[in-house]
Amino acid sequence: MVWSERRCSIGFGGLLFVVCGWTSWTSYQSTVDAPPTITLVASGWIALGATAFMIAGRRDRITVGDRRLEWWQIQGLGFACLGASVLTPAATGVHTWLNPITCVLLAGAFGVYGAFRLRSEPSADDPVELSVRRLLRVLIQSVITVLAVRAVPF
User: Fold this and answer.
1) Is-contact 32 26, C-beta < 8 A?
2) Where are the transmembrane segments (predicted)?
3) Contact 7/57 with Cβ under 8 angstroms?
4) CA separation for the pair 103, 86 (Å, rounded)
5) By C-alpha distance, which of 106, 99, 91 is closest to 38?
6) 45 contacts: CB under 8 Å, gap ≥ 6
7) Own/partner pairs for 22-27, CB < 8 Å, 24+ apart?
């Protein structure tokens, strides 16, 4: 069991709850391009994903009906929920800060990664301990990727 990945899952789930709350609050406080119902549906998907990440970080496994889900499978469901939250505005034709093609590609990436997490157990032989340096590198790479995607006209 990779404890560092599970700790990151708890942190990521907490961050997603903040994003969910902020998205819900801004949908009530301002008039944005998205109707409040679509924003609330996307916030609901984010809340489901955040809940999945928090459960994956706290529990080894849960039983849903007759099916037993391990923590990495719960994380996979969380990534699938994030994909659905990105796809919801694009599927309804609402203009977001990303163009619809980018939203579909991003939702597909979340969905594929979620399906991968549902199918494959992470290796306990190769634990990845996160360091501040590695987290900064991932953050910088993410910002560069978002800026590069925004710069490419589709």
Assistant:
1) yes
2) 7-25, 37-57, 69-91, 97-116
3) yes
4) 6
5) 91
6) 81, 82, 84, 85, 88
7) none
Q: How far apart are CA 45 and CA 53, in angstroms?
A: 12
Q: How far is CA 44 from CA 12, 48, 58, in A?
A: 16, 6, 21
Cα angle 134, 129, 147 (rounded to 5 degrees) comes to: 25
What is the chain's alpha carbon radius of gyration, rounded to the nearest angstrom? 17
Note the pTM of the prediction, 2 decimals.
0.71
Q: Which has more pLDDT, 2 or 61?
A: 61
> In this predicted structure, what is the pLDDT of residue 21?
78
What is the mean predicted confidence (pLDDT) over 4-20? Answer: 79
Number of neighbours of residue 108 by Cβ within 10 angstroms: 13
Residue 108's nearest CA partner among 86, 77, 141, 130 is: 86
63-110 pLDDT, tens digit each: 888 888 888 888 889 889 888 888 887 776 665 666 777 778 888 888
